[in-house]
Amino acid sequence: MIMENYSNNDFVRPKKALGQHFLVDLNIARKIVDALSDDHDTVIEVGAGMGVLTQYLIENQLEKLQVVEIDKESVEFLKKKFPKLEGHLTLGDFLKCDLSSFQPDVAVIGNFPYNISSQIFFQILKYRNNVSECVGMIQKEVAERIAAGPGSKTYGILSVLLQAWYDIEYLFTVHENVFNPPPKVKSAVIRLKRNNIKELGCDEKLFVTVVKQAFNQRRKTLRNSLRSMIPAEIIDNEIFNKRPEQLAVQEFVDLVRQF
């Protein structure tokens, strides 16, 4: 159902909009919002822009909703367009938000700006004990990378780190012509749901370091990319003959345990 009070023309790109591509297809906006569970303590919308997702979040999530928007012009627009957002709208940078200040069951949703989408996911990882779900629209290539499994050419750092703590679903592809202005690439919507893992069972800081260093030299075997870190007594182990994209998350955990 599309809200009767709004049309695509109500969500036009402002003059100064930080380069973001604004979704103008209301049916897709509704589909994105519907993908988010409604049983959270707090729902944070990142980068609301002109409010195309916000209008649907207001329908059934208003009491829980916190909208974080970094662009002052967009904030002023949202205040006028949606008076109900009074007390639920913050001018600020999501990447600097302390998500632990909210109730522990936090959901994050948004049409994430392409240029900071990876940073948004690292912010979610930082507060993984608070953020139980995320539904985001991002560049299709990044979505495929996050959802990729071992053996895939797109499997990488974000894949492993996010999949260690979240179950990932690639929901659907979004074409260029539903944005203003149209981007040069396709987008996609993904959903992250916190898994049941409380601790990895290894040094978690070392886990992150190992994953990053391995994939930063992904064409090399682990023996070569991690040589400076591998204890001499285990350097001949067979696992070091592999390349990083061949290892599942649990195999990375087991590898770090050997260290």
In brief, what are we looking at here?
The chain is of the alpha/beta class and about 260 residues long. About 30% of the residues lie in helices and about 20% in strands.
Based on the model shown, name its key terms.
single chain, 7-stranded mixed β-sheet, alpha/beta, 259 residues, disordered N terminus, 9 helices, 9 strands, two-stranded antiparallel sheet, Helicase, Ruva Protein, domain 3, Rossmann fold
Q: What is the global morphology? A: elongated
The number of domains: 2
Helix content: 25-40%
Quick one: CATH superfamily of the largest domain? Vaccinia Virus protein VP39
Number of helical regions: 9
Strand proportion: 15-25%
What does this structure look like?
With 259 residues, this protein is α/β, with parallel strands linked by helices. The chain has two domains: 187 residues, Rossmann fold; 55 residues, rRNA adenine dimethylase, C-terminal domain (Helicase, Ruva Protein, domain 3, Orthogonal Bundle). It is built from nine helices and nine strands. A seven-stranded mixed β-sheet has the order 4-3-2-5-6-9-7, sandwiched between helices. Strand 2, helix 2 and strand 3 form a beta-alpha-beta unit. Helix 4 runs parallel beside helix 6. The longest helix is centred in the C-terminal third of the chain and has 13 residues. The chain starts with 21 loop residues before the first strand and ends with a helix.
